[in-house]
Amino acid sequence: MGIEIVFDDNTREESEGRLNLWLDQRIGFSLKRRLAFYRTLSRKLRNGEMINRVLLNRAEQAEKFSNVWEARMLRRIERILNDEGTTFAYTLQPYIPEDEFTMLLSGEQADDLPSALDMICDTRTRVAALQKEFRGAWVEPAGYIAIVVVTLSIAAQSALPQLARTFEHNGTSSTALSLMLTMTQIGTIPVTLGLVGLMAGAAFAVRWSLPRMRGRVRVWLEVAPPWSVYRDIQGYLWICSFLAQCKIGVADVDVLENQAEESRSPWLTERLSALRDTMVDEGVTLPRAMDMTRLNFPNPEIVREIDDVWGDEGDYDTLLTHSLIWVNQIEDRTRAQIRVVRGVTNFVSIMLVGAIVLLEIFIGQDMIPR
C-alpha cells in the first residue's frame, strides 16, 4: 500500500501574496509615485477622462519603463474599483495615510476631486521638503565629527607616540601633547564604536519618541526641534483632514472620536481624545477645548486662527483657505529652526576641529628649543 504525500501550497501562496502587496504598496505606491499619479489624475479628470481609464493608462506606462510594482498596484486599484463598486477614496483607503483618504473623501462629497488631489500634492510636497531639509541639517556637522575622529585615530597610531618619545628623550614636556594624547582615546576602535552606538541610540530614541511620547514632558519638549517640527507638520496635516470631514457634514466630536480610534500614533491619539473629552464633558467649542487642554495642538498660531474664525458662516471653507497661509508660516518657522540647529552643530563641530589644529600648533612650539 503506497503512501501519498501531499504538500499544501496555500500558506506559501498567501505569504507570497502578502509580500507582493507589501512591495507594491511600499515601492509601487510610494509617496513620490503617488503624488505623480495624483497630479496626472487631477489633470485628466478636469479634461473629462474616467478614473479607470487613467489607472490603466498609467499602469501601461509603468510597464513600459519596467516599473512592475507600480503597474501591479494600479491594476489592483482599478480592479477593486471596477469589481466592488466602491468610490475612489474608499478603494485607496487601505493603501494611503488617513489624512489623504479624508481629503479624497471630502473632494468626492463636494464633487470636486481634482481640487482635493491638488491640495494633497501641495501639502505632501511641502511637508516632504521640510522633512528632507531638517534631516540634511545634521549631515554637515556629522561630516566634521567624522573628520575629527579619523584625524585622532591616525594621530594616535603614528605621529603622537613618536612625538611623546621625542619629548621624553629631550627631557621636556608638552601640555598640549598631553591633552592631545588624552583626546586620541576617542580615536580608538572601542571608544569610536561606543560613540557611534551612543549617537545611533540617541537618534533612534528621538525618532521613536516623535509619534509615541506623551504627557507634559512632551509638551515641554515641543518648544524645540525636532519635536516642535513634528508637532507643526503633523498638526497641520491633522487640521486639514479634520476640516475636510467637518465640511462634508460630520460632527466635529464624531470626527475627533473616529480619528482617535483610527490613529496609529499614541501622541496624536492623546491629543484628539483630550479635545473630544473636553468638548463633550465641558460643552465647549473646539478652539476653547484647544485652549483648555494646554497641549498647544495643532500649534499656537493655528489655534488663534481657529478661535478667530470658528462659528462664522463658512468657517470650514475659510479655515481651509487659511491652511495655505498656515503651511507657509510653518515652512518659515521650520526653516528658521533648521538654521539654528545647523548653526549650533556646525559651530560645535568647527570648534572641535579648531581645537585640534591649535593643539598641533602648540605642540610644534613646544618642540622649538628655548
The main β sheet shows up as: none
**Helical amount:** over 70%
Oligomer: single chain
The CATH topology of the domain at 10-136 is Receptor-associated Protein
Structural class by sheet pairing and helices: mainly alpha
Q: With helices defined by DSSP (H or I, 4 residues minimum), what is the helix count?
A: 18
Q: What is the mean pLDDT? A: 83
Percentage of residues in strands? under 5%
What low-confidence regions span 5 or more consecutive residues with pLDDT below 50? 1-16
Order of helices and strands: HHHHHHHHHHHHHHHHHH
The total of beta strands comes to: 0
Radius of gyration: 29 Å
Which CATH class of the domain at 10-136 is shown? Mainly Alpha
Q: Estimate the global geometry from the Cα principal axes.
A: elongated
CATH architecture of the domain at 10-136: Up-down Bundle
The N- to C-terminal Cα distance equals 104 Å
